Structure formats: structure tokens, C-alpha cells
């Protein structure tokens, strides 16, 4: 890897760490850059997954204030996310990419719909629960959220682009929580999924360790930048960013 390619990968890591902390889809920045340096797709994918783990941790640390009081929720959703991430990593190593990639744009599109309609859907759900005799909804989303997070995490372990969008869409709809606090949980779960997938890849896949190091350093820096920027955004602006990034992700995936 030349000096200019190394700088490009480092810059991509910073950008990915920043956007991952705010919303997700940082893989859509780093993955094409790694391919442009000449890395094979699978090597680029697994190297990217491992390199982004420190960035997710950095973003979670940056959002530590919003994580207060959410330990039980993180343990519950984290357990499901670990299982899903493990399953996704195994899928990457055993299934042809075409069988999974065709549904990725659909999943991202569904997540965007959930993000946009979340305030109205959540309000309608609360009204229906109250009309049925009180607020009977589950404070942590119940089985619906656990099942959705399991599938989203499996996707994250497989590839991960727009994984954060899926998380935000699901949790925003099914949790009675501020979007910033949901975003903080999303960063922890992303770190868990990337981490468990990376552990699997360590035993069976080939890494480019220069790329891993550059992305790790860049994403760690970006995680702190993203935390400072993201927590200052209003829910409306944050949703607008989520939708914009998600649409760009769909377009890029369809083109590629």
C-alpha cells in the first residue's frame, strides 16, 4: 500500500468512525476505498470489520452520558446482537453473497421508512394501547424488538453497511426513549457485533493488517468527532441525516 493509499484509508477511517457514531453506514466509506487499493472483496470486508471495532467503542465512550440508566437494556439487546452477529459472520463464510445482497437495499429502505414514520407510529401505538385499557406496551420493545435486532445484527455480522440505520429504525419505533439515548445504545451494539464477527474472521479469514491499523486509528478519531457532533443534533435533524445516509447507501449498493 503506497503512502497516498494509506492516507486515503486513514481518512476513510475517520469519516467512517464519524458517520457510524452519528447514524451508521461508515462501511460505505471504507469498503470502496479498500477495494480501490487492490484488496480482494472478502479481505477488504473482514479487514474493515476489525478496523471499525475501535471506532464503535470510541463512539460509545463519547456517548457515555446518554448510556446512563440503560445497563439492563444493553445487556438484553447486546446478548441478542452477539448471537446475530455471530450468525452473520458464519453466513459470510458459507453462503454466496448474491443470496444475501439482494435483500440488503430492501432492509435499508424499510429501516428508513421506520425512522421517518417513527414519531407517528409510536404515538399511534400508544393511543391504541391506552384505548385497550392502559399502557400495556413493553418498555424494552418485547419480542418484536428482540427478533428485529437479531436479524439486523445478523446482517451487521455479514456486511454491516447501514446496520446503524436498521438499529435506529427498530429501536426508535419500539422503545419509549429519546433518539439520542437510542443512538448511544446503537453504538454499543455495533461494537459488539463488529467485535464478535471480527473474532470469527480472525480464525478463518485473511486480513490486511495495514488496512486494519489505519482504519482502527481513523475510526477511533472519528468516533470522538461523531459523538461531539451527533449529540448536538435535534431529533428532526438526526432523522434527516439518517434518511440521507440511508438513501445514499441504497443507491450505492444498487449501483455496485
UniProtKB/TrEMBL annotation:
Q: Where's it mainly located?
A: membrane
- Parts forming coiled coils: none
List all membrane-crossing ranges.
7-34, 46-63, 75-96, 102-123, 144-168, 188-216, 237-255
- Its membrane topology: Multi-pass membrane protein
Source taxon at top rank: Bacteria
What subcellular locations does the record give?
Cell membrane
Q: What Pfam families does the entry give?
A: TauE
Q: Which UniProt keywords apply?
A: Cell membrane, Membrane, Transmembrane, Transmembrane helix, Transport
Q: Which family does it belong to?
A: Belongs to the 4-toluene sulfonate uptake permease (TSUP) (TC 2.A.102) family.
Q: What is this protein called?
A: Probable membrane transporter protein
Q: Which organism is it from?
A: Streptomyces avidinii
